[in-house]
């Protein structure tokens, strides 16, 4: 189960996770609830519903809400990343991403794993599901192109 969460989460980064306790993309994959009325049959979700999945601190473009994920609780200094990369700090429930709006890819992904999580992940299959991260400006994020 954890590997699935990791795969979906990483896909989301490049491209979704709120409330007092932030939720992840997996909430979109669970059986529908009242909250999920805004999710269409195709699996897409409105921009406002997607942003609603993030806590207020996760909506901020900084590592302030997830410093504990970094070694020695010291996040990457954004000033060390060239401005030409248009860096963006993204915090989610279990991982942090330093994202480049220039290359539209993560530059660094930080996640704390333990032996129990790795053991629990055995046998999980990759889903290849992709969701654009609504915290990234449309001009700086990767999108899935649907071919006719």
Question: How would you briefly describe this protein structure?
Answer:
The protein is an alpha+beta fold. It has helices spanning 2-13, 26-29, 47-51, 56-59, 115-121; strands at residues 87-91, 95-100, 105-111.
Overview of the molecule:
The radius of gyration is 15 Å and the shape is globular. The chain has one domain. With 148 residues, it is an alpha+beta fold. The longest helix has 12 residues. β1 and β2 form a beta hairpin.
Quick tags:
148 residues, alpha+beta, 3-stranded antiparallel beta sheet, 5 helices, 12% strand, disordered N terminus
- Count of individual domains: 1
Enumerate the spans where pLDDT stays under 50 for 5 or more consecutive residues.
Answer: 1-42
Number of strands: 3
- Structural category: alpha+beta
Shape: globular
Proportion in helices: 10-25%
Number of helices: 5
Strand order of the largest sheet: 1-2-3
Largest sheet: 3 strands, antiparallel
Q: Average pLDDT, to the nearest integer? A: 76
The N- and C-terminal alpha carbons lie at a distance of 33 Å
What is the radius of gyration?
Answer: 15 Å
| Helix-strand string | HHHHEEEH
Beta-strand proportion:
5-15%
Write the layout of secondary structure elements.
Blueprint: H1 2-13, H2 26-29, H3 47-51, H4 56-59, E1 87-91, E2 95-100, E3 105-111, H5 115-121
Antiparallel strand pairs: 1-2, 2-3
């Amino acid at each position: 189960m954890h590997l699935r969460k990791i795969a979906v989460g990483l896909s989301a980064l490049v491209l979704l996770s709120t409330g007092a306790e932030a939720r992840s993309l997996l909430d979109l994959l669970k059986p529908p609830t009242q909250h999920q009325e805004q999710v269409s049959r195709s699996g897409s979700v409105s921009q406002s519903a997607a942003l609603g999945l993030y806590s207020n601190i996760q909506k901020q473009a900084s590592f302030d809400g997830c410093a504990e994920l970094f070694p020695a609780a010291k996040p990457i200094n954004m000033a060390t990343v060239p401005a030409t990369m248009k860096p963006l700090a993204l915090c989610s429930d279990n991982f942090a991403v330093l994202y480049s709006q220039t290359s539209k890819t993560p530059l660094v992904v930080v996640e704390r794993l333990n032996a129990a999580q790795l053991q629990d992940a055995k046998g999980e299959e990759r889903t290849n599901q992709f969701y654009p991260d609504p915290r990234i400006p449309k001009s700086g994020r990767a999108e899935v192109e649907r071919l006719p």
